């Protein structure tokens, strides 16, 4: 399944991060470093180019660095290859209220870097601004190797991002007026619609800092969850036997059981929007709905995804 589904599977902690932010660490000249916020360091969060938050050359010491294909409006993907080892680096995704309890925290200029406890084959860092907005960088072992150097890769990215934020070198993408990037994903559906899904009767929407993602439900494997994303990449395609193409609200739509296993109660609905990036790349913006309904089959989850698409697609900007 395409890495777009990564957004559905990543669990973001929701705990306060503002404690301890009142004082700014001094710089090398003894002056207090400015306390950067999302507004001062990044500007319009909807149009941030995540790939501009770190130069790919920062990772050259780890091997051959290549840009991977676009799979999101919110983060950038790199591939690092050395001999038989392949590492995937994801960076640029914004979040709020990353938990710090029990995690090492160090200051770098006007931001803080929070170290997640590493997992086998995975290591992540969060560059936290003074207002609690954070920028994530993670390193994942894709092939070969032991994963022993992943945290060094993540640390390098965190330092590069911290420098970019303090130096205000972020770039912004230009989008047409009918772009999904400029639309709040939470605004595409009436609040009471989710109440019809068992387990979400009282759930409230949670929007990402960029407003490209909206979530309902608790981030637990045994909880019903819905996510609406405005993203980008290859046009939706039927990739396995547990996926179908149909028209919903006069839009070509691909409904797919995530991973292709019909017993997995996780389904996505995707529809292409306007072109994204250079025409030769053949990429598009994509509206995506992902539904997880524990206790259901994949086809049962897809029935919910289909019903939500019938409500969401008519509210998308015209093509």
Automatic annotation (TrEMBL):
Residues 1-22 form the signal peptide. The keyword Signal applies. Residues 200-219 are annotated as: Disordered. Keywords: Signal. This is DUF3558 domain-containing protein.
């Amino acid at each position: 399944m395409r890495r777009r589904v990564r957004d559905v599977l990543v669990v973001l902690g929701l705990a306060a991060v503002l404690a301890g932010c009142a004082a700014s660490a001094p710089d090398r000249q003894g002056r207090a470093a400015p306390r950067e916020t999302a507004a001062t360091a990044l500007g319009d969060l909807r149009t941030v180019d995540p790939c501009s938050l770190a130069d790919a050359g920062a990772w050259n010491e780890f091997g051959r660095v290549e840009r991977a294909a676009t799979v999101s409006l919110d983060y950038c993907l790199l591939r690092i290859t050395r001999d038989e080892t392949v590492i995937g680096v994801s960076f640029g995704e914004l979040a709020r209220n990353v938990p710090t309890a029990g995690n090492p925290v160090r200051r770098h200029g006007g931001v803080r870097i929070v170290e997640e406890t590493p997992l086998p084959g995975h290591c992540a860092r969060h560059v936290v601004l003074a207002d609690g907005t954070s920028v994530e960088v993670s390193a994942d072992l894709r092939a070969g190797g032991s994963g022993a150097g992943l945290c060094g890769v993540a640390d390098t990215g965190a330092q590069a991002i911290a420098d970019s934020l303090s130096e205000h070198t972020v770039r912004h993408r230009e989008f047409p007026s009918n772009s999904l990037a400029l639309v709040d994903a939470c605004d595409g559906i009436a609040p009471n619609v989710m109440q019809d899904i068992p387990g979400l009767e009282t759930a409230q929407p949670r929007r990402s800092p960029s407003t490209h993602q909206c979530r309902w439900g608790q981030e637990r494997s045994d909880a019903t969850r819905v996510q609406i994303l405005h993203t980008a990449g290859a046009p939706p395609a039927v990739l396995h036997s547990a996926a179908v193409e149909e028209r919903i609200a006069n839009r070509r739509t691909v409904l797919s059981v995530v991973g292709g296993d019909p017993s997995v109660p996780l389904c996505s609905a995707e529809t292409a929007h306007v072109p994204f990036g250079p025409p030769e790349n053949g990429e598009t913006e994509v509206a995506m709905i992902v539904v997880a309904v524990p206790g259901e089959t994949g086809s049962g989850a897809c029935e919910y995804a289909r019903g939500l698409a019938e409500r969401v697609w008519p509210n998308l900007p015209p093509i």
